[in-house]
Amino acid sequence: LAVAHDGKKRIHVFGPSGVCVRRFGERGDAGNDIKYPLDVTVTADGHVVVTDGGDCSVKAFDFEGRGILAVREAFCLPWGLDATPKNEVIVTDSEAGALYRLAADFRRGELKKCQMIRSRLVSPRAVAVCRTSGAIVVTEHLGARGPSKGSTRVKIFSAEMDLIGQMDSFGLNLVFPCRIHATAVAFDKEGRVVVTDVCSQAVICLGKPEEFPIFNPLISHGLSYPVGLTYTANNSLVVLDSGDHSIKVYSS
To answer: What is the CATH number of domain 1-116?
Structure first.
């Protein structure tokens, strides 16, 4: 499990027992440095990939924390990312309003392809790839209207990048009893969309793309400000809680 944060060494890698096995990525301009990490993922072959908002790049590291690849040319402000089972990385560009697919030989540090696969998104941030169907879910952060602080929208695309479902905070509020502000998103092993909601301090399942959206709170107590979300191989749910600076692991 890799976590990005704002400490001295910005990437921490934890083993299954919860022990931190690696720390790397200090602030700076050297090859192994990370100025301002926004998201992190681990590829199928064990490489750690980070979006760095400080120099608008996507950086890949080996498990020892050595920088092996940095991609800057294509991006305005890369934000969220998730690795696919094919060892590719899906990246959101919040400023460009776009979604990219990045393919590389991480062992050799060679970029193969960085392709825009979707444009005209509104400040896309968190992204997740379904391991079974290849579907992609993205959260968009919409501009504030009037005195509100803005809202979020969740969009689901098929593996072929066809839009198959979407719902914004206003629409969710018409269906559900609370206003949802989605900060992170993931797919569970059954292909259901799960989001963190900072308004209700909860983790909520929105269902599979074909039934989207339903409303099923998975965690409704014990969170302060959930901003990160992922599932482990054994289907445990991991939540990054920025409110009390902790990682919380829940059984399936």
So the answer is: 2.120.10.30
Q: In what order do the strands lie in the sheet with 110-118?
A: 78-83, 89-93, 98-105, 110-118
pLDDT of residue 147: 46
Alpha-carbon distance of 192 to 165, in angstroms, equals 13
pLDDT band at 105 (very low <50, low <70, confident <90, very high): very high
Pairing relation of β-strands 163-168 and 151-157? antiparallel
CA distance 201 to 161: 31
Task: For tokens 């970029």, name the residue.
Answer: 111
Domain 122-251 falls under CATH 2.120.10.30:
yes
What's the chain's length in residues?
A: 252
Write the pLDDT tens digit of every residue in 108-158: 999 999 999 999 999 999 999 999 999 999 999 987 554 456 689 999 999
From-to residues of CATH 2.120.10.30 in the chain: 1-116, 122-251
Kindly report the CA angle at 206 between 204 and 209, in degrees rounded to 5?
Answer: 155
